[in-house]
Amino acid sequence: MARKPYQKPEIIPLKNGRMNKFGLSPYYSRKVRKDIEGVPIDELVERFGSPLFVFSEARIRENIQQARTAFAHHYPKVSFGWSYKTNYLDAICAIFHQEGSLAEVVSPMEYEKARRLGVAGENILFNGPHKSLVALERAAKEGAKIHIDHFDEIDDLLLVAEKLGQEIPVALRVNLNAGIHPQWSRFGFNLESGQALNAAKRVSVPGKLKLVGLHSHIGTYILEPDAYGEAARKLAAFSGALFDEIGVEIGYLDLGGGFPSLSRLKGALLPPDVSVPEIEEFAEALCKGLREGLRPGHTPHLYLESGRALIDDAGWLISTVHAAKRLVDGRRAYVMDAGVNLLYTSTWYQYGIELDREVQGVGEPAVLNGPLCMNIDVVDESAVLPPLERGMRLIFGPVGAYNVTQWMQFIEYRPAVVLIDQKGEAQVIREGEDLSDMVRRECVPDHLKLA
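Above: the chain's sequence. Below: its structure in token form.
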């Protein structure tokens, strides 16, 4: 039997501490995951490679159905718009549209993607601070719900209305104080300063623009249901003020998204299954505020644009340990085939980590590095792990929100993405990249060609 290679021993004190009000010592055994939705990890990697993003169709459908039911219990007219920026893979969007969601987009690119998937213009909520004249003209022709972000956009839409010779229904994005910090004041028109009222008066140009909706998105990963109640109450009350002051009847209110998922924010004391409220709590608080703010007899349609809460826990990333090493300070470190190029949100969130097999040994803090030749490529700075061998799989989750849309084609190819359908079969929904994907749009002038 061959001897194992010599490794210099390191002595590192493990400061477990005692039990406290937040639970047991962090030095616990890692969970083992041998499959995702019944499909073995080994089979997934053998068929599609590593790293690999995996999504669950059943989990996505369950999430949207649960959210829709929660709000339907509290308000009679509710529709969801799927937030494309959260994850705009065609197959993912198609699932949400099959479940009745509109498309919520924030750029001309996302608008084109929604139309390409067959979403009618009237079923698109068009947000965002940058909408070109060309994009606004197309959206107006196709009846999209255009949400105005700034005064210059009002001017642009007046030009479009004059060019098309038609009145364009529009909505205003409103930022307001919902009692949380920080206040998202970058987008839209401020309510408390009177800016939103001035914008509403400017929009009300007979024959050109018609104000039909109000929109407010107070932030992301909001843990306070009452903040949504306050935002809904203020937006509803503003709709009543518009009716009284300028005779505008608001047909819909859009309260955005921002509901949290079960991702764990770095530095959070409590685990997300304890600190994150259920979707029912958000529905109850938001709709209660809505009813309190609306004038009697006024029941506008309610739109919601939830993304993270509906997709995050339906996504995993399988990665493989490529190497183990000791850093100069004595900490153990592992090099994986997936890093911040694929897990962009690791900047803010501490992922759950599962192993593909049982491992014996004492857990110790380890640094998880990705494959990039960059010192910042750190997925976790202190993951408590037993000794891992080369070739082991680490499964990260939940990672379904914002990673596939913000991943980078930097140094490494972007991997395949598969969907476990409701029959338990794994299907590719995005092929892994190769060199042709990177160079397809490049052009080399003749005098620079080597051959």
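Residues 225-246 form the longest helix (22 residues).
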